[in-house]
Amino acid sequence: MNDQHPLIPTCLLRVDPQQPDARIIRYAGLLLRRGKLVAFPTETVYGLGADATDARAVERIFIAKSRPSSDPLIVHIDTFERLHQVAINIPSLAAELAEKLWPGPLTLVLQRHDNIPANVSAGRDTVAVRMPVHAIARALIASADVPIAAPSANTFSRPSSTTAAHVLEDLSGKIELILDGGSAVIGVESTVIDFTTETPTLLRPGGVALETLRDHLPNVKIRQQFLSDTTAAEAPGQLLKHYSPRAKMIVFEGERQAVLRAMNQQLEHLTAQGDKVGILAVQEDMDTLHADIKIGLGSEADLEQVAASLFAAIREIDQQAVSVILVRSFENRGIGMALRDRLTRASEGRVITVTSETE
Ligand code: TXA
Ligand code: MG
Q1: What is the dihedral angle through the alpha carbons of 134, 165, 64, 125, rounded to the nearest 10 degrees?
Q2: Hey, whose CA ends up nearest to atom 6 of ligand 1?
Q3: Which among 65, 167, 173, 353 is most buried, taking Cβ atoms within 10 Å?
Q4: Atom of ligand 1 nearest to the CA of 127
């Protein structure tokens, strides 16, 4: 808790994610209109919302999250009409993509409308916009009747929140209201595409898989960091610390059996050194890995399930006060691309590629 800021009583209200209680939504919308901070569920992760047209309310998001003001926020809308209150000169490619994939886990970076104060976008003349599909998020935006700026509802650099309990853990005493709509279904954040560059560019892999994007946008440019398997290890200094557990995380990739052997060796070595080691593992690997502390991520055959449990699992293993977390990486397909990105960042680039020589 940051002592420089006065404590705010944080209220938590349960809301049915399918049929949100209209009175609660009206109350939450009113709070937003008055410049207050309301955390709410979306299909990806929980968002920390403020009226995106109110620079002072937006400023409070940065303070509550301890987020540097250089890191721009995503503005959430509920209708295509509202898009035009947020962005201007929308390229037809962007509009077409939005028509196909909204509402959903897709964020478009566009030219910013003057309605949106510069601090939302960290001073840039662009703005990131998303239309979520979650019923609570949509009802809330409609009720507030303004676009809602909402980064993930976690303290800066911590894993994103996928439950109201995570939000409470990070933001209790700093925000007015949390709407508890249960666990986020997707579990990783939206895919971010920049449409202000000459060719649309993928800035963050997320809930919409690259394969799906390419169906609609065959020319989408991919940043090198998402293409290479070893970029992270080559350039750890360039990586933003993000989604980080308190413990040091080490990610392993390569042929499965070789990786499992390398992980067990590392485990032995670290334990002998006095480290308390925890492992995040898919159910297929559980019996082969010998750690005392193991948290399951679901089945490797169902990467959607892994995505839904990843951030909660990182928080859970951290609570066991381990000093090192070992985890095997995922295939670079579908939502696996987003999983790899989050693990690379959570480990601050400590990705070990196991080759046959290492065996
Ligand atoms: O799924 C999501 O996108 C969640 C839910 C709450 O909607 N939100 C989320 O927000 O993940 P946040 O603030 O944690 O991540 C926003 C991402 C950051 O990577 C940020 O750099 C990028 O979007 N971003 C925002 N505005 C941008 C802009 N104008 N230009 C480039 N990138 C931008
Ligand atoms: Mg975030």
Answers
A1: -30
A2: 47
A3: 167
A4: 29
Q: Is the pLDDT of residue 353 over 80?
A: yes
Pocket of ligand 1 (CB under 6 A): 42, 44-45, 47, 71-74, 105, 107, 109, 121, 124, 126-128, 130, 150-152, 189-190, 192, 194, 203-204
Q: Is 78 exposed, middle or buried (0-12, 13-18, 19+ CB in 10 A)?
A: buried
Question: What is the pLDDT at residue 5?
Answer: 73
Q: Give the position, in ligand 1's atom list, of the atom nearest the Cα of 47.
A: 6
Radius of gyration over every alpha carbon of the chain, rounded to an integer in angstroms: 20
Dig out the tokens for 283 from the structure. 């159910």
Measured CA to CA, the distance from residue 343 to residue 202 in angstroms comes to 18
Q: Give per-residue pLDDT as tens, 140-151.
A: 999 999 999 999
Count the Cβ atoms, other than its own, within 10 Å of residue 15: 23
- Cα angle vertex 157, ends 294, 59, to 5°? 145
